[in-house]
Amino acid sequence: MAGIRSSLFKAARSYGPALSRPASSETSHNFSLKRRASSQTTPPPLSTPAASDPVFEDLEFDSSFLTPALPDLAKVPTPKDRSQHKTERLPGSRYQFHPPKYDRGPLHPIQSPRSSDPTARDFVPGPFHNNRLRQTYHSTIAPDLMTLTYTHRPPGTKQESTPQRLRSWDDSSPYHKNRPLRGPRGDPVLRQLEKPITFRNVPVIRSVTLAAFMPTAIKEPDRMVIARMVTQAITGTVPEITEVKHSVSQWNIVEGQKTGLKVTLYGNTAYDFLDKCIHLVFPRIKDWEGVKGSTGDSSGNLAWGLTREAVALFPEIEANYSMYPAKLIPGYRIFVETTAKSDRHARLLLSSLGVPFQGELRD
C-alpha cells in the first residue's frame, strides 16, 4: 500500500506543470485569478519545519498545517491603570457631589439625599434576600389583621370620646401656668390607648432581642466564650457583653462584673430568627404547651424563654453539636418589640405568624 501511494503521489507531481498551462484564454483568466488570490497570502517563516518539508510543497500556505502560533495577547489595562495614566482630572470640590454633613432644616437650599440614595451618608445596601416570613406578612397577614379587627360603625354613629386621663392643676400658684398635666393618683402605669387597626397602623415587628444571664461565668470564663459562639451562630450577629448594675451578695456578684450578653435583631435578620423559632424549634420542644398568654408589658411587646435543650434544636447548633459542650449552652429570654399599642394586637400578630399561646389571655 505504501508503494502505491508513493507512485500516485509522484505521478501527480509529474503532471502538475502540464496542468498548470491552460489551453484557452478563459481558462487562463480564471487560473490567473486563482493564482493571484493564492499569491496574496504571506508564506510562513522558513524556520518552521513544516514549510521546509517537501511533502507540504503543494499545500496552500494558509493551511491549518502551516498556520503559525498566535502571539501572546497584550495585558488588557484595568480601569485603575487607565485612571492612573490620566493627565487631566476634574477637581473633586466642584464636580463631585458630597452630601452635607448636617441637616440645617427643611428650608435650607441644600438638602441631604434620602437614605436609599447611594450617595447618602447613612446609605445601607440591601436587602439582599426576600425573607419568606416577611413576604407572607405583607401579602397575607397584614390584610387579614385589618379584616379580623374591623369594627363596623354605621354613618351617623357618635364616637365615644376618650376621657381625660391626666389631672389638671388647680391654678392656686402662678407656677401652675403652662405646666403639663399631672399623672393619675397612686403613680400607676399609664397604658397606651388601643386604637383600631387601619391600613395606616397595621402592627409589625420592630425588633427581636435575645438576652442571656450567666452568673457562673465569673468563675468559669468558658461559659461566656461558648455563649457568644452559640448566639452568633443562631442570630448571625455579634452579641454585646453586659455587666451587672447592682451587687448581689447571695450570688457573690459585684457591680461591674461581666455576667451576660444580649443582641438585638432588626429587619430581615429578626424575621429569619422568628422563622426558625416557629417552624424548626417550637414543634420539637417536648412537653411544651406554648407561650403564656399573660405575657406582655401592656404596650404591645411580648416575651418568652428558651432553655438550653431548646437552644440545641436550632439547625446551626444541631449540625455542629460536638463543637458546643451541652452543659455550657445558655438559655435565652426573647423579647419581641412590635408597633402594636396593646398586648391583644401584638398577640394577634404573633399568633398569625405561628407562635402558639396557651393559658389565660391578658389584654
Automatic annotation (TrEMBL):
Q: Where are the compositionally biased (Polar residues) regions?
A: 22-31
Keywords attached to this Swiss-Prot or TrEMBL record, sorted alphabetically, are:
Ribonucleoprotein, Ribosomal protein
Report which superkingdom the organism of origin falls in.
Eukaryota
Q: Does the keyword Ribosomal protein apply?
A: yes
The Basic and acidic residues compositionally biased stretches are 78-91
Annotated region Disordered: the residues are: 14-54, 70-131, 152-188
Does the keyword Membrane feature in the UniProt annotation?
no
Q: Domain named Large ribosomal subunit protein uL5 C-terminal: which ranges?
A: 259-357
One GO cellular component assignment for this chain's record is: ribosome
Q: Which family does it belong to?
A: Belongs to the universal ribosomal protein uL5 family.
**UniProt protein name:** 54S ribosomal protein L7, mitochondrial
Which species does this protein come from?
Sporothrix epigloea
